[in-house]
Write a structure and sequence with these properties.
3 strands; about 55% helix; Multidrug-efflux Transporter Regulator, Chain: A, Domain 2; alpha+beta
């Protein structure tokens, strides 16, 4: 798990280490409020806050 870049998880790391879902599924979840919204890192770069993703994963464990 890479915790560099102020605890931001980029898309490739997100699907590799945390949420094995397609890009369209993740965006659908973001639009519907199921998954945390990404943060803009630059003109063409986004990422997710580690804390937000971890909180989402913890809430999913409670459901299962």
């Amino acid at each position: 798990m890479n915790m560099s870049n102020t605890n931001i998880i980029r898309y490739n790391e997100l699907v590799r280490d945390y949420v094995p879902a397609s890009k369209s599924t993740i965006w659908r979840w973001c639009r519907s409020g199921v998954f945390p919204k990404p943060v803009q890192l630059g003109p063409r770069a986004i990422g997710w806050r580690y804390e937000d993703v971890q909180e989402w994963l913890d809430s999913r464990e409670d459901v299962e």
